[in-house]
Design brief:
The protein is an all-alpha fold. The chain has five helices and no strands.
């Protein structure tokens, strides 16, 4: 897989004799029209450059001092569109590599799917435990509220209610034999 991504990063050397695969993706290099003067431009370089151009266009003094809002909007839209185009090309490259991998090593794709499912299951189990903890907490809060509301109703009312309640808590007198 690493050799099939040659050309993706600058300074990376392509393999001596790449094995052609029918319907295979082209190396991760930019179209010839958008290559840098040195000729070593890759999609990653173009993606990075277009991303930087988006920010540069937003903070450029030319745009800040400019008075023509339509010109500013057009320039920013062009930068963003170029970034989106290069991002689509990069995504297409990785999707093609993923397709190659699924054809050449289907068991690897199944292992990755199983791993993703296990991770998702573990995440959901943790979420269930978190919700159960919250449910138990709120059940305890509701139970405490119910107990507090029942106690005042059980107490007798009237001027001697406090003495009657206090006398019920006293131990019974010991009878002499």
């Amino acid at each position: 897989m690493a050799s099939s991504m040659s050309g993706m990063f600058p300074g990376q050397q392509p393999p001596a004799h790449p094995a052609p695969v029918p319907g295979a993706a082209a190396p991760l290099s930019a179209p010839s029209g958008s290559r840098a003067p040195g000729g070593n431009s890759t999609l990653v370089d173009d993606l990075e450059a277009s991303f930087e151009a988006c920010f540069a266009s937003l903070v450029s003094q030319d745009y800040v001092n400019g008075t023509d809002q339509e010109e500013i909007r057009t320039g920013v839209d062009q930068c963003i569109q170029k970034f989106l185009d290069v991002a689509r090309q990069t995504e297409c490259f990785f999707l093609q590599k993923r397709l190659q991998l699924s054809v050449q090593k289907p068991e690897q794709v199944e292992k990755e799917d199983i791993s993703e499912l296990r991770n998702e299951l573990q995440r959901k189990e943790m979420l269930i435990q978190k919700h159960l903890t919250k449910i138990h907490h709120w059940q305890q809060v509701l139970e405490d509220i119910n107990v507090q509301h029942k106690k005042p109703a059980e107490l007798p009312q009237g001027p001697l209610a406090f003495l009657e309640q206090a006398s019920t808590n006293l131990p019974a007198p010991i009878k002499p034999n």
